[in-house]
Amino acid sequence: MRPVQEGMFARSLAGHDKGKLYVIVRVEEPYVYLADGKIRPLERPKKKKLMHVQIDYQQTEISSDLEIRKALKAKEV
User: Fold this and answer.
1) Confidence (pLDDT) at 20
2) DSSP character for 3?
3) Rounded to whole angstroms, how far apart are CA atoms 69 and 52?
4) Distances (CA, A) of 40 to 3, 22, 44, 68, 69
5) Which of 8, 72, 5 is nearest to 40 (CA)?
6) Helix %, strand %, coil % for the chain, to 5?
7) Domains: count for the chain
8) CA 64, CA 52: separation in Å to the nearest integer?
9) Residue 36 within any structural domain of the chain
10) Residue 11 in contact with residue 54, Cβ under 8 Å?
11) Rounded to a whole number, what is the distance in angstroms from the first to the last CA of the chain?
12) For residue 45, what are the domain limits?
C-alpha cells in the first residue's frame, strides 16, 4: 500500500458526509485533514480518521480553494 500524501483525493466512507469527495490537505496519522474548497476551505479542513476514507492515489495541486474546486469537479465528471 502506498503512503498517503497531500493532494490525493479521498472519499468519505462514514458520517453525515458519506460519499463526498475531498482533497487531502494534511496527514497526521491516524488522521487526514480534508478540504473541498467550498464548505471546507483550506483554512478550515475536516479532520477524519484514515479508516473512514477511501484514498484515490491520483494527485492534484492544493494551493488554493479555487484549484481544489476545479480538481474535484473534473474528478467527478
Assistant:
1) 97
2) P
3) 22
4) 24, 9, 6, 11, 11
5) 72
6) 20, 40, 45
7) 1
8) 25
9) yes
10) yes
11) 26
12) 8-76
* CATH code for the domain of 32: 2.30.30.30
20: which 3 cell numbers? 463526498
- Extended strands (E) in 1-77: 8-12, 21-28, 31-35, 46-49, 53-59
Query: What backbone phi and psi angles, to 5 degrees, belong to 5?
Result: -130, 165
- For residue range 3-58, what is the model confidence (pLDDT) as tens digits? 999 999 999 999 999 999 999 999 999 999 999 999 999 999 999 999 999 999 99
Separation between Cα atoms, residue 66 and residue 37, nearest integer Å: 6
